[in-house]
Fold Dihydrofolate reductase.
Amino acid sequence: MLVAIWAQDQNGLIGKKGKLPWRLPADLKFFKETTENQTIVMGRKTFVGMNSRPLPNRKTIILTRDTAYHAEGVEVMHSIEDIMTFAEAMEDDVFICGGSTIYQALLPHCQKILRTLIYENFTGDAFFPALDWDNFMLLERRVGTKDEKNPYDYQFESYLRK
């Protein structure tokens, strides 16, 4: 099953110059615990924004139209069809991790959504694409609060496609 996972501010912002515009350790911990020992899919620009280093203990797939692109320690695919064929053959979930263009292309195929909503407004240049929330039902909402490590109020949300 394809699962979209992301964090956003109140306005749908997800990035700034290829990086996260905030630091929220609780969200990073949630992402790590959710995706560890799983397969993650991201676009080339998102990967480059992570200094072109695959995250430990995950199979990383880079989706790019650039057929000459190669990076150490990752698998490269070039089409939505390649990702869909791969995901259908998997027993485990495949997590879509960004950026905006990758979410836009793969959201119609995602059966589950894991969103961290940060109750703050940031500046940046990458936004989560429009989503018809009527197609999804809320499964769980866990509220987090700011503290000495997490400077913003936030919540984790889990949705399933109807």
